[in-house]
Write a structure and sequence with these properties.
heterodimer; A: alpha/beta; 25% helix; B: mainly alpha; 72% helix; binds adenosine-5'-diphosphate; binds magnesium ion
């Protein structure tokens, strides 16, 4: 098991700065997911860990050893590329064997290891085939087997599932989680898909524009987004973030010092059950529903607040509500506060007032 | 009828390729056939044609010099093709690096290709002159013995190879270069992660990935080497002492200098059979080892 440390890592291509300065610790044995919008520098970061890209500044260590001058093949890492990067001129067996051969593993041992891995990932019947005779899922397995056979301390994966169809992707997610548990190696996994990140990672590193926005466990990332970017990146539909005044004067008055924005997850908004009075710690407001998406299990309403801000409301009701005005309740506990820099403000004390917002 | 021919789904394709087929027949198949016919006659271009059966071939294969001609042809082929391929590959690998020098050399490499081979040959006759040639002047300047580039029977064939290689290595290098540049970078990255040495990368990725191009170039160069004529005609006339006399030059000399058309045709038949044989053997031997995408 190997802990990976990036200290003050910067990366520029020419005078284009991709990563200003990155400090990141990836715990030994973790399933760490680098997630963020396309072009934010995830692959670049991963490739710097692999040694395929040289950082402009800073230093990287793996398992306590500085690897800045260590070639990719000597870093004890294996990588699964997005397009698998299978050697087209070698058979499946030769593909898997290549790394072992280069590491001067004796022939008999090599054979044994290759067959063992092939058995594990279900490639045994394909060992003598050329890669172009394989399906997408089988190629993915070859890429995985090629990484696994070297028994590396660190697995690097760059969007390894993005070329698979939805069903296979779902299946492979579970297999990778199991693989991680079985091997106990450190996994660094790059994806732009927040669902993939949330469902697979034990630790999530959310990046934007070459900067780490937040690093935490999935539950924490969802429950306590450190800033507006994070709050909007995780969750479908994303968190409603509006000016604090949008929820009415009372909510605004209750906002902690310095708060400019408030956020509420769409699934935390409920339609008012008028038979039950508004209780302390709860706020009621009138919204205008303007659109509805029916996703089968869930309904997503698009609504407008009195000040014109748009929000989403996610419910699991059986019957869809009609468009038009509706009363919505939210618990103050479920409100996240952000300052003018869009940074999270520490949990405020909750006042037990009953508030009512009347729409204009 | 025109319309019905064009309507008939089965005939239409043949109708469409007919013009190409006609050209092929008139300019390729007919001459080949006619040459085969000529090879069993004795003819001096003017007088009557006299049927001699396999007489020309009998004469050919009993001619003690003919073995030497075939040997020259094969040696020339072997040297020319291997030098062009080896230096073409080395040059291509160099051009494949980044930098102003390789970019500049990419342009330079192509230059010999736009000069007519006859002009190139004339320039080399001058460079390779025993006494006033630049090559020997350089050799004597550094204290080495002069070489009889075109006058030594042991050297002349090699000198011809040299000229041909000089002329065609650049183009071959550029074609190999484009193959090199089409190898996806991630394959080398994967190999780096698999701890492959530079030599292993070259042997296991570069060469297999460009094998279709290499296969094709070797074939083109082999066939081209059998057709080498301008250099021989301008520089050595097959000499000294027939040491640079090849099949194609023998065809020309017998046919158009000695007017022994039937005999020349017989040599041409041998040449054709030889090229065909080598091509077939080459395909047999290497095609399976070529990786097509
Ligand atoms: N070799 C390169 N030269 C110049 N720019 C690059 C290079 N590789 C990546 N970039 C740029 O760096 C940024 C981050 O790329 P990347 O790390 O691949 O993003 P992603 O998060 O989508 O994986 C992008 O804007 C990309 O255009
Ligand atoms: Mg990427």
């Amino acid at each position: 098991m190997s802990q990976i440390e990036l200290r003050n890592i910067g990366k520029s291509y020419g005078d284009k700065e991709i990563i200003p300065s990155l400090d990141l610790t990836i715990e030994a044995g973790s399933f760490s997911v680098l997630v963020g919008p396309s072009g934010c520098g995830k692959s670049t970061t991963l490739r710097m860990i692999a040694g395929l890209e040289k950082p402009t500044t800073g230093t990287i260590s793996i398992g306590g050893k500085t690897v800045d001058n260590v070639t990719p093949g000597q870093r004890g890492v294996a990588m699964v590329f997005q397009n698998y990067a299978i050697y087209p001129t070698m058979t499946v067996e030769e593909n898997i064997e290549f790394g072992l051969r280069n590491n001067k593993v004796p022939k008999l041992e090599r054979r044994e290891l290759v067959h063992e891995i092939a058995e594990t990932v279900g490639l045994t019947p394909h060992l003598r085939k050329n890669p172009d005779a394989l399906s997408g899922g089988e190629r993915q397995r070859v890429a995985l087997a090629r990484a696994m056979v070297k028994k590396p301390a660190v697995f690097l994966m760059d969007e390894p599932l993005s070329n698979l169809d939805a069903k296979l992707r779902q299946h492979m997610r579970i297999e990778l989680i199991e693989l991680h548990e079985r091997l106990g190696a450190t996994f660094v996994y790059v994806t732009h898909d927040q669902v993939e990140a949330m469902s697979m990672g034990t630790s999530i590193v959310l990046m934007d524009a070459g900067r780490i926005q937040q690093q935490s466990a999935p539950t924490e990332l969802y429950a306590k987004p450190q800033n507006v970017f994070t709050s909007r990146f995780i969750g479908t539909p994303p968190m409603n973030v509006v000016p604090i005044a949008a929820f009415g004067a009372d909510v605004a008055a209750d906002a902690p010092e310095g708060a400019e924005w408030l956020g509420v997850r769409p699934e935390r908004l409920t339609f008012a059950d008028t038979s039950r009075p508004v209780v302390p710690g709860e706020t009621e407001l009138t919204v205008t529903i303007i659109a509805l998406e029916n996703l089968g299990a869930e309904l997503v309403y698009r609504a407008v607040l009195p000040d014109g801000s748009r929000i989403a409301i996610k419910r699991f009701d059986e019957i869809a509500r009609p468009l038009g005005d509706a009363l919505v309740r939210v618990e103050t506990n479920d409100i996240h506060w952000f300052d003018a820099n869009e940074e999270r403000i520490a949990e405020p004390a909750i006042s037990g007032q009953v508030r009512e917002v009347v729409s204009a | 009828m025109k319309t019905s021919l064009l309507r008939d789904r089965r005939l239409l394709p043949y109708a469409l390729i007919a013009p190409a087929l006609v050209i092929l027949a008139v300019f390729y198949l007919y001459p080949i056939g006619y040459n085969a016919v000529l090879s069993v006659f004795s003819w001096d271009l003017r007088g009557p044609m006299k049927f001699v059966g396999f007489g020309n071939f009998a004469e050919l294969f009993t001619d003690p010099d003919f073995g030497k001609v075939i040997q020259n042809t094969l040696v020339y082929m072997g040297m020319e093709v291997s030098l062009v391929m080896i230096f073409g590959l080395i040059l291509a690998l160099f051009l494949n690096r980044q930098g102003w020098l390789s970019e500049f050399l990419q342009g330079v490499s192509f230059a010999p290709n736009v000069i007519a081979l006859v002009s190139v040959s004339l320039i080399f006759v001058w460079l390779m002159d025993d006494d006033i040639g630049l090559f020997n002047q350089i050799l004597s300047a550094v204290g080495l013995e002069p070489v009889g580039w075109l006058s030594d029977t042991e050297v002349a064939l090699f000198s011809l190879v040299l000229v041909s290689v000089w002329k065609s290595v650049g183009l071959n290098a550029l074609i190999i270069l484009s193959a090199l540049q089409s190898i996806p970078r991630y394959l080398f990255e994967a190999a780096d992660l698999d701890n492959a040495s530079a030599w292993t990368r070259f042997r296991k990725i570069t060469i297999p990935m460009i094998s279709p191009t290499l296969f094709f170039l070797v074939l083109v160069n082999v066939i081209g080497s059998f057709q080498a004529f301008d250099t021989i005609n301008v520089m050595t006339q097959g000499g000294p002492q027939s040491s640079t006399n090849t099949l194609i030059f023998a065809v020309y000399r017998e046919g158009f200098e000695y007017y022994r058309v039937g005999y020349a045709a017989a040599i041409a038949v041998v040449l054709m059979v030889l090229v065909g044989l080598i091509t077939v053997l080459y395909f047999r031997a290497f095609q399976k080892r070529v990786h097509y995408r």
